[in-house]
Design brief:
The complex is a heterodimer. By secondary structure, chain A is of the alpha+beta class. Chain A contains eight helices and six strands. Chain A has two domains: about 90 residues, Glutaredoxin (3-Layer(aba) Sandwich), CATH 3.40.30.10; about 90 residues. In chain B, a hairpin with a 4-residue loop joins strand 1 and strand 2. Classes of the chains: A alpha+beta, B mainly beta. At the A-B interface, strand 1, helix 2, strand 2, helix 3 and strand 3 of A face strand 1 and strand 3 of B. Strand 1 of chain A pairs parallel with strand 3 of chain B. Chain A: Keywords: TPR repeat.
Chain lengths: ~210, ~40
Amino acid sequence: MPGWQKFYEEHKDKNFEVLSIAVDINGADVVKPYANDFNFKTLIDSENILADHYGFKIVPNAIFINEEGKLSLIKQGFSIEQRAHREAIVKLLDNEVPCIELEDTYYIPSGSNGLEVKLAETKYKLAKEYLKNNLKEKALKELDEAILLDGDNFLIRKQRWYIRHPEKFEGDIDVEWQQQQLKNEKEEEAKIMNPENCSSNGCVIPGTTKA
Amino acid sequence: MKEFLGTKVIDFTFQDLDGNTISIKDYMGKKLLIFMWASW
C-alpha cells in the first residue's frame, strides 16, 4: 500500500500516527502476508468490534482521532488514493478545521433492524469461536444466519466468501465472481425472507406487475 | 455515522501481528489516522 507510506512520509512531522486495523475472523495468520509491506502497526479486529460500534458495513474505512481522543473524521470507503480524501486528512493534520465530513457516499445500506443487527454480531462472534476450534461447518452456519439478519453487511458476506472460496481472493480479486455471487445470494435470501415474492423465475419487487 | 464526530473514540484493545495486546489508549495525545481494511 504505497500511497499510505508516501502520505506518511510527507506529513510525519505533524505529530501523527497511522494505525492499520485488519478485519478477519481468522486473525493474524491470515492477515500477516498482506501486511508485510506495511510499515505501520497492524492490529487485528477479528470480532468486528470497531465496525459494529461505528456502523461500518464494508471496508476500507478511516477514522481520524485528534489529540484529545475525539473523532475528527469518519469515512466508510476511504481511500488515500482519492485526492479529496487525502486533502481532508491534510486539513486535519494542519489544524485548519476541527472536523471534516466527506460528501461522497461509498455505500448506503438499507436500514437494518437494531435487534437483528445485534443478533448478527453475536453470531459472527460465535462463528469465530467455532473456527478457532476447527468447526468450520458450524461457523459457516452461523455466518449464513447472520447474513439473513444483516443482509447489507459486507463484512459478514465477504468473510463467508473468503472462508468458502479463498482461491477467488488470491492475486487479483475476481470482481465478476463477487457480483454474480452477490446476485445469487440476494435471490436466495429474498426467497427465504419473502417467499411470496419469488418463483423459479427469480424474485419480483413487491408492488410491480409480474411478467 | 457522522453522529460520532466529536465523540471520544471507543476504548479498544486488539492484538498486533505478533500477538501483543495494544490499546487505543497507547495513542492518546497524538493525531491518529486509523485505516480499516481486509485481505478480501
